[in-house]
Amino acid sequence: MATLFRARWVLPIDRPPIRDGWVLTGNGVIVAAGGPGGEPSTVGLAAGESAPIRIVDLGLVAVLPGLVNAHTHLELSWMRGRVPAGDSMPAWAGRLIDLRRGVGRDPVAPIADAVREARGAGTALVGDVTNTLSAYDLLAASGLGGAVFREVLGFSGASAASIVEAAQDQLRRLPPSPRLRASIVPHAPYSVSRELFRAVAAVAGTGIVSVHLGESADEIRFLRDGTGAWRELLERLGAWTGDWPPPGCGPVEYLDRLGLVSPRLLAVHGTHFDGQALARLAHAGATVVACPRSNRWTGAGTPPVERFYASRVRVAVGTDSLASVEDLNVFAELAALRRIAPAVPASRLLDSATRAGAAALGFEAEYGSIAPGRRASLIAVTIPAAVEDVEEYLVGGVTPDAVRWLETDPEEAPHPQKQ
User: Fold this and answer.
1) How far apart are CA 335 and CA 396, in angstroms?
2) Which helix (H) or strand (E) holds 287?
3) How far is CA 363 from CA 41, 120, 125, 181, 203, in A?
4) Dihedral pair phi/psi, residue 21, rounded to 5°
């Protein structure tokens, strides 16, 4: 049966909020949405047929599309609270690498907990970066949609082809999932050789490419002259090769030279992007994924969020992993963005956490807005009666206990069970 949800606020995202609005859903998709006076009394099933609509009054809530976490690492969830905050991104990353080398494989139970946590905080779609594909089956069983980014690393150009072929073989063996799309992506300029970047570009096709880019001042130095803390970490790990000439340019120009700056690029973090880099990304139609809480924890710095938006580049939102944030709540990430960028309209921040994120991950036809034909992946957030600016309220920070999912999708799978 079709269901019409009434609420104090409906946020379609692609148009302004509707006070005392409604959303009509049926067969797991959104049929229509509107305001007072426009409610349908029946819904058409076929030519000459109609059926009654179940009406649900939700009361003092805001209904909006499920959120999009465009960058996270679910397989690192077991590291929660185990990698102390740092004042240098290479030093922090070195501690994470040392910790990870001490385990044989990523424990599954923390991943299952993290998936439940993300969904409980209102997330519908994720961009999950993975070296092991440990979270794939749990994501497939969860009801979450996702772009699964099989990340490759390697600073030796001689091994580039074999690294990509091994990753392709892993993806070919994954069981198909209607909500998940997997692709191969490079990690970062300080961990991936030119040859490996080019090998990834050669197989990327029309797939989304997510890259950690412009994250730290150390990265900028490394690309300029090949020195500094990233070089020292590569040497300590035995990964440095002396035949890597520094490109002598910024990270965005470097990727552009390698053929990776396009509308399919997710430039993750961008903490140290200058105006020229942002202009190049905006011209290409690429996306910057802002993860401010993680940047603070790792010592990478504070992203220039207001410059992101002023450049007209598409901006999405990510939490990064539980190794560098306390939770996977995208609403908490929005609150951090609001603190950093008080001049950015709340409507644009919400767009980044929904519609822009869905488009960046290649799911714009299914997620991110309350529009006919989109999946009815809808959340209701409890709102105080006195709230007049609902968008500003939502970017101020919402805790999971104020969020619930609307039961609209007959295909919605149960949350993964704790293992």
Assistant:
1) 5
2) strand 287-290
3) 31, 21, 9, 10, 20
4) -100, 180
